[in-house]
């Protein structure tokens, strides 16, 4: 599965970068394939391992704020590996054609 998610502390002011960095650190240390952009972090793996990383990333932000917002989107598809790369490559192939 691929999960795209964002975790944002609520009530801590406009500068949330430090808390968000802690969530991204959890993802990076997980060893699972991942990408981070301006709005979301995407992570790929099996259900239990991905959801465990998401939970730990949320906990990392909760350690800095008593309230957090989580947005999550999941693509659950059996038998697909390297979807983070292959899905983008498919789109690029169509754009080049």
TrEMBL record:
GO terms for cellular component: cytosol. Residues 3-92 form the Thiamine-binding protein domain. InterPro entries: MTH1187/YkoF-like, Thiamine_BP, UPF0045_domain. Gene3D superfamilies: 3.30.70.930. NCBIfam families: MTH1187 family thiamine-binding protein (TIGR00106). Belongs to the UPF0045 family. This is MTH1187 family thiamine-binding protein. It comes from Streptomyces calidiresistens.
